[in-house]
Fold:
Amino acid sequence: MSGPGLAGFPDGVRYVPVPAPLLGRWLREVDTLGELKLTLHVCRLLHERRGTPKFVRESELLADSALLLALPADERDGPEQVLTASLAAAEARGTFLRLSVRDEAATDACILLNTVANRRVVEEVGRGDRRLGRWAATAAASMPNDIASQQPRPTIYDLYEQNVGLMTPLLAEELREAELTYPTAWIEDAFREAVTSNKRSWRYVRRVLETWATRGRGTSGETRRRVDPPADWRKYREGRYGRLINR
Structure:
């Protein structure tokens, strides 16, 4: 039987921010309680860290009694095993980056939020160009020169939730059709232009895509408002998904 719930929140309660995508697609897809609890706990720890880059060491998590008590251990797997498995699942899902490190006395692993800036940090540490505090990458953690290329490109759903907001089922169908209609690079650049112009809405992104499809993007591929008409514009206005452009 569960214990008593919260007695409510006091005035001036402290808030802990989490990345918006965690409240969208990630929340729908995460399928274990251990990964859910670990992710929220690490997000809180990262928020409380000072300086940059912010990271949490794996040894800290394994020594965190509050976290271990919260994880769903059973007779087969103890809390340490659940923590290790949950951390691996979060890394595989793309939530966190894990970098094996060492100092003069010990080895450990640093956990960072999987952002563009932190991917760059991991790459630099892996090459030996920088350290994380007193920590340097172990030999086993040497990173390829282009770590970003190993990361999956965001889908149109990811781009929407990262830059606009939570997605509705009705909008998901329209996003799916747009993903099938336009090149991936166009979609990414259209969302980037919406953010740059501070017009974070699908209506604006769609209008940018429609303009590029009918008037072109220019021979250099740069995002710009005045563009040269393409020679093959009809392929975007005709066919199965032409109605997205014509409406």
Summary: The chain has a mean pLDDT of 81. The CA atoms of residues 164 and 201 lie 6 Å apart.
